[in-house]
Write a structure and sequence with these properties.
- The structure is a single chain.
- The protein is of the alpha/beta class.
- Helix content is 31%, strand content 18%.
- The longest helix has 22 residues.
């Protein structure tokens, strides 16, 4: 079955004309990213060129994808939009609410029992509004999208930051908050600041222990977690063409960790091979007809410095395997230097768990390369020293891998195959440990490794590497082991060496699956009832946020001055809190509980200015809200880094917060704040961060004159009677200011649909 083939053909029918119009308009050759962006303008053919990093542009994405944790809030909002069906092809994927405990079968059954209310809601609301539904166990959203929906030259948005995975099939695929998804499903234009462009030229060819994962681990080390903010990363060159399609997906997937809007590759033979191998020959044939338009122009790739804002060059032939971490995905260490880094930094050398799979590295190729290492452990009589888990990306990959004997190899080496779900990658992991607070090391082939991300333990040192390197280290049980140079002692007391991994890009017998887990929506959902149980602790219908009264906001209390890294995990933790993603009031009880308070160094413990006592952020915010007192958060650089979860914007808003003032924002989070009617501001002078004191009360001075490009001033009234006035910048345009006035973007959509 090929999904949405008529839509894809329609996109391709318009593509050449729009690309040629854009090339003529701009007067220059175009990158692939520019071609896709200009081909998806809301108003059709472009009538003026756009300025990278400055112009706000309305786009018309081809499709929307949502995972179960974020889909709940997105669809609760969509139900208020006034639409009867989704305006573009849309899907829901149930992959976040399955906790890894003992193994796939039992874990999946347990999840279906515990979260049946949520799954039933998602299936019914999907059925009603014409949205495709992928049941629990069908697979991780990004792998399922790559296998079924992604197509070269397309544009999609998804309510998960790793939506960018589809760039491996030549898409511009962008992670967003649920309110953005509502825009597109409601038939409205989707707004994005025209991105800057970073080019990564790949030469040479991978060999030995080096994998596609090492490309992005290297890039993350170069660009850091915020170096890609506001930019699309476009990979090109002969090295790019040599990478498998799923390898390209791995690289794009983890581009979220450098803050990039998205990453992409030009259409090539590897993509065509993957499309045909996954039953989409008709899509490949259609792409072949316009192949010249589905990659950057030759002049661009010949002289990239003239057309990209930044260019990075990597020789795959000399690229070394990397291990990134701990605590941040951009701390990149070449394998040859890693043992020294472990010793110098005092990281725990004993490896307790190795975990492979996830949305980043769960392809057939990944499993074959890892399985080749697992087979060596069996053949060479090596006893595996660490726990080892495998998370297949989809039921199609799992079924095919089982048929081909790959899973048997992992089982024989002592590994555990988990459900086709996110699991440990997002903290959905009942880790086996006798001390949940012990200082320890784990290594994964996942994408994120922030503190407490996987198991809730701040002392877990989480590292990221390729699946095959994770497998080798798990066999050794030692973080200082280098399989390229070191030997291991087997059960017979012999020194043995692990040989280079061997992989197969596409299954020789083709992909197979008995039940892919997909449910087609009703052709007419008008009689489908969506039920949210009265008094449910998991689901709650939404009440609209109140519109702005047009006046200055006065008497705000400083709720927290966050110190250092404050990701969406710090603002709205995942793990056990995922069960409340459809209940705004209940999940608000985790708001900013992971943020470090500048004034006491404690996580989420803040002063209640009404009582003088200390309490959790949500408790103190609720106390202020009960008294009608608004609040403000102050933060550091790259505030809101990480997941696309809009809960990190909705929860503070629900609790009475009006302003988030920081040194800089991560892109998705800043947009989410705007969508929810919050005021996201940045310091005109970063040193003003230091002026905020614990007992401050804050007023806006000129918010009643809110307009595009005009700074906003705040007055800080300190407890000793002194005052400071500071200048704040913002990036709101007129339409975003209209969201603020309406109380949220959804309020504005609802009003327009009623008109």
């Amino acid at each position: 079955m090929i999904f949405d083939i008529e839509m894809i053909k329609e996109v391709y029918a318009k593509f050449p004309e729009r690309v040629n119009a854009a090339r003529e308009l701009t007067g220059k050759p175009l990158t692939l990213a520019e071609k896709i962006l200009y081909a998806h303008l809301w108003d059709g053919n472009p009538d003026s060129p756009y300025t990278r990093g400055k112009s706000y542009v309305n786009f018309a994405p081809d499709r929307v994808a949502m995972q179960d944790a974020t889909a709940q809030m997105a669809l609760l909002q969509f139900m208020q939009s006034g639409r009867k069906t989704a305006a573009v092809p849309s899907t829901v994927h149930c992959d976040h609410l399955i906790q890894a405990q003992v193994g796939a079968k039992k874990d999946l059954a347990n999840a279906k029992e515990k979260s049946s209310e949520v799954f039933d809601f998602l299936q019914s609301v999907s059925n009603k509004y014409g949205i495709g539904f992928w049941e629990p166990g069908a697979g991780i959203i990004h792998q399922v999208v790559l296998e079924n929906y992604a197509f070269p030259g397309g544009m999609m948005i998804g309510t998960d930051s790793h939506t960018v995975n589809a760039g491996g099939l030549g898409m511009v695929a962008i992670g967003v908050g649920g309110a953005d998804a509502v825009d597109v499903m409601a038939g409205m234009p989707w707004e994005l600041k025209f991105p800057k462009l970073i080019g990564v030229k790949l030469t040479g060819k991978l060999s030995g222990w080096t994998a596609s994962k090492d490309v992005i681990l290297k890039v993350a080390g170069i660009l850091t977690v915020k170096g890609g903010t506001g930019a699309i990363v476009e990979y090109f060159g002969p090295g790019a063409e040599s990478l498998s399609c799923t390898g390209k997906g791995t690289i794009c997937n983890m581009g979220a960790e450098i803050g990039a809007t998205t990453s992409t590759f030009g259409y090539d033979a590897k993509m065509g091979e993957y499309l045909r191998g996954t039953g989409r020959a008709e899509v490949a044939d259609a792409a072949d007809q316009i192949a010249e338009h589905l990659t950057g122009d030759a002049e661009v790739y010949a002289n990239p410095e003239q057309y990209f804002d930044q260019v990075i060059e990597i020789d795959l032939s000399t690229l070394e395997p990397h291990i990134n971490g701990p605590y941040t995905p951009d701390r990149a260490t070449p394998l040859s230097e890693f043992a020294k880094a472990v010793k110098e930094n005092g990281w725990p050398a004993k490896l307790e768990v190795g975990l492979i799979g996830s949305c980043t590295n769960s392809s057939y190729e990944d499993l074959t390369r890892s399985a080749s290492i697992a087979q060596q452990a069996i053949d060479k009589k090596l006893k595996v020293k660490s726990e080892f888990t495998v998370t297949p990306g989809s039921e199609q990959v799992r079924f095919t891998a089982e048929r081909d004997g790959l899973l048997d190899r992992f089982d024989a080496m002592g590994g555990v195959v988990l459900a086709n779900a996110c699991g440990p990658c997002i903290g959905q992991w009942a880790r086996h440990t006798d001390d949940p607070d012990r200082k320890n090391s784990i290594i994964t082939s996942f994408n994120r490794n922030f503190a407490k991300r996987n198991d809730g333990n701040p002392n877990t040192h989480s590292f990221v590497a390729s699946p095959e390197l994770v497998t080798a280290l798990a066999i050794a049980g030692d973080m200082t082991f280098n399989p390229m140079t070191d030997t291991l002692v087997n059960e017979a007391g012999e020194e043995v060496r692990l040989e280079e991994p061997l992989g197969i890009e596409m299954p020789p017998a083709g992909y197979a699956v008995e039940n892919n887990g997909y449910h087609e929506p009703a052709s007419d959902g008008s009689n489908v009832e969506v039920v949210v149980a009265q008094g449910s602790e998991r689901l709650q219908l939404l009440d609209p946020f109140q519109p702005w009264d047009g006046k200055n906001i006065e008497g705000m209390k400083l709720i927290i001055k966050a110190k250092g890294k404050c990701t969406t995990d710090h603002i709205s933790m995942a793990g056990p809190w995922l069960r409340f993603r459809g209940h705004l009031d209940n999940i608000s009880n985790n708001t900013l509980t992971g943020a470090i308070n500048y004034f006491n160094g404690e996580a989420g413990l803040v002063k209640n200015q009404l009582t003088g006592e200390y309490g959790s952020v949500p408790d103190v915010q609720r106390a202020y809200k009960a008294e009608g007192i608004p609040s403000i958060v102050v933060g550091d650089h790259n505030y809101g880094e990480g997941s696309s979860r809009e809960h990190a914007a909705m929860q503070p808003r629900h609790l009475g917060m009006r302003i988030v003032l920081v040194k800089s924002f991560a892109r998705i989070h800043e947009t989410n704040l705007k969508k929810q009617g919050m005021l996201g501001l940045t310091f005109a002078n970063e040193a003003d961060y230091d002026k905020f004191q614990e007992d401050d009360t804050i007023d806006t001075l000129d918010l009643n004159e809110f307009q595009e490009g005009k700074p906003i001033h705040l007055k800080l009234k300190h407890a000793d009677g002194s005052e400071d006035t500071i200048t704040c910048e913002h990036t709101y345009n007129e339409s975003q200011i209209a969201w603020f006035r309406a109380g949220s973007a959804l309020n504005k959509i609802k009003a327009e649909n009623k008109a």
